[in-house]
């Protein structure tokens, strides 16, 4: 008997998550990266551009893979999926390099906030990579695989949500309202969708996603305080 959790491949939900992510990226990074690049007012090392390009590639790959599966072209999906791990590794490595570069740039003005950001980047990107590795390990279990890849993609998009504060400065506490609540709201949509379609909630949304959200909430609550500040300073010293 077919796994009922794997029967929703032809639904538009998964490509829709990716397309919504592209909109948020365009809005969030358009102000802080796209427009300054077009005007020639943004200068950064090559790995900063690599980080942006690899993250965008991931979202485009997610959309392409979702469409391929929904249209039954699973053989192409499997071959294209071989590129997922190198892209994820590039996101991880270039993101940490970017965090170190930004901390050096901002340290004179921002102090420990700059080095604490290094800790947040390392933990956030490492969680992304762990979820991707879990998704690849479970690629023969499509119900787990596609939900883990979706969760990794949602997690990857939170910096784009956070940058919406430049477009909507009237929104209070953007580190909570945008980078936490808005960024992870798609998980609630996925939970509702699963329950409506299957009468139950998949373990990815029931256990893995809440654990990720709790970790991110603690990150926000204790950012640049106590152990978090010390950890960020130690990381910055180690990596520089």
Number of domains: 1
Mean pLDDT: 93
Q: How many separate helices?
A: 10
Q: N- to C-terminal separation?
A: 55 Å
Sheet with most strands: none
How many E strands? 0
Q: Beta-sheet strand percentage?
A: under 5%
Q: What is the radius of gyration?
A: 18 Å
Please tell me what the overall shape is. globular
Structural class: mainly alpha
Sketch the topology as an H/E string, one letter per element.
HHHHHHHHHH
Q: Please estimate the helix content.
A: over 70%
**Low-confidence runs (pLDDT<50, min 5 residues)?**
none
Walk me through this protein's architecture.
- The chain has 240 residues and is mainly α.
- It has one domain.
- The chain contains ten helices and no strands.
- Helix 2 (46-70) runs antiparallel to helix 6 (142-156), helix 5 (112-137) packs antiparallel against helix 6 (142-156) and helix 8 runs antiparallel to helix 9 (203-221).
- It is globular.
- The model has no long low-confidence stretch (mean pLDDT 93).
